[in-house]
Amino acid sequence: MIDTHAHLTHPKLAGDLPGVLARARTAGVTSCVTVGTGVADARAARDLARAHPGVVYATAGLDPSSAHAAGDRFDEALAALTGLLDEGSFVAVGEIGLDYHYELSPRPAQADQLERQLGLAERLGLPVVIHVREAHEDMIAILGAHPRSRGVIHSFTAGPREAERYLALGWMLAFNGVVTFRNAEGVREAARLVPADRLLVETDAPYLAPVPHRGGRCEPAYVTATAAALASARGEDATAVEAATTTNARGLFRL
């Protein structure tokens, strides 16, 4: 299997990386996409990918938090990100997106920062990893205005209506440990709508550990629990979901 979204550079995982990767391998998770949030983190993600070829892959993007942290120097941060991506070794631009939960930056600023990075991904021919929190209407409008963009809505935790609209735009949906939570029936409803060739699985480690690990540190090995919950929600065999999501990940990120 492939964990399509983790943060292996996070302090909760970085100090135990050999163990994290060993446990993932034992669980049948052969590869992991580690997501760079901000220029320094993306550089660290790339270093991990180079140290573990074929096992770890890296992305690079200015997510809403790192874009906000750049403040008036966003143009400078974007230029640095562009230079880093131009050097290669990244499988996607991201995570990038909109976050209206914390309202770190004004919404028009977030939209502009997102669109500029979508344009960068289009120029480079790379897929995009989208972060969206409490901002689906605006995100759908922006992605609709960028028909050349492709990629995945990461950590999909909305319902069937939103799922249908993202699918209509051609995007993949990735599900994490939330799909195992008792109060997430809307997420499971959405999961049932996703065609097999548009489905991905992730952990978002070290966050959102699935049941039965909920409340503890999440790690890539736990993606198997999420895949099992997805299979149950969809009325499918777990091995079929594992095979489909692995094929989809390889295709999207060109692994």
End-to-end Cα distance: 12 Å
Name of the CATH superfamily: Metal-dependent hydrolases
Q: Largest sheet, order of strands side by side?
A: 1-2-3-4-5-6-7-8
Total domain modules: 1
Which structural class do the helices and strands define?
A: alpha/beta
- Counting DSSP H or I runs of 4 or more residues, the number of helices is 11
**Looking at the chains present, what oligomeric state does this protein adopt?**
single chain
Relative helix content = 40-55%
> What Rg is obtained from the alpha carbons, in whole angstroms?
17 Å
Low-confidence stretches: none
Q: What is the C-level CATH assignment?
A: Alpha Beta
Q: Under CATH, the topology is which?
A: TIM Barrel
**SSE topology string:** EHHEHEHHEHEHEHEHEHH
Q: Could you tell me the mean pLDDT?
A: 97
Which word captures the global form? Answer: globular
Strand content: 15-25%
* Largest beta-sheet details: 8 strands, parallel
List the helices and strands and how they pair.
Layout: E1 2-6, H1 11-14, H2 17-27, E2 31-37, H3 39-51, E3 56-61, H4 64-70, H5 74-86, E4 92-99, H6 107-124, E5 128-133, H7 136-144, E6 151-153, H8 160-168, E7 172-175, H9 185-193, E8 199-201, H10 223-234, H11 238-253
Parallel strand pairs: 1-2, 2-3, 3-4, 4-5, 5-6, 6-7, 7-8
Helix pairs in contact: 5-6, 8-9, 10-11
Commentary on this structure:
The mean pLDDT is about 95. About 50% of the residues are buried. Helix 5 runs parallel beside helix 6 (about 105-125), helix 8 packs parallel to helix 9 and helix 10 (about 225-235) crosses helix 11. The longest helix has 18 residues, at about 105-125. This protein has helices at about 10-15, 15-25, 40-50, 65-70, 75-85, 105-125, 135-145, 160-170, 185-195, 225-235, 240-255; strands at about 1-5, 30-35, 55-60, 90-100, 130-135, 150-155, 170-175, 200. The chain has an 8-stranded parallel β-sheet with strand order 1-2-3-4-5-6-7-8. Helix content is about 45%, strand content about 15%. The chain has a single domain, classed as Alpha-Beta Barrel (TIM Barrel), CATH 3.20.20. It is built from 11 helices and 8 strands. The protein is an alpha/beta fold.
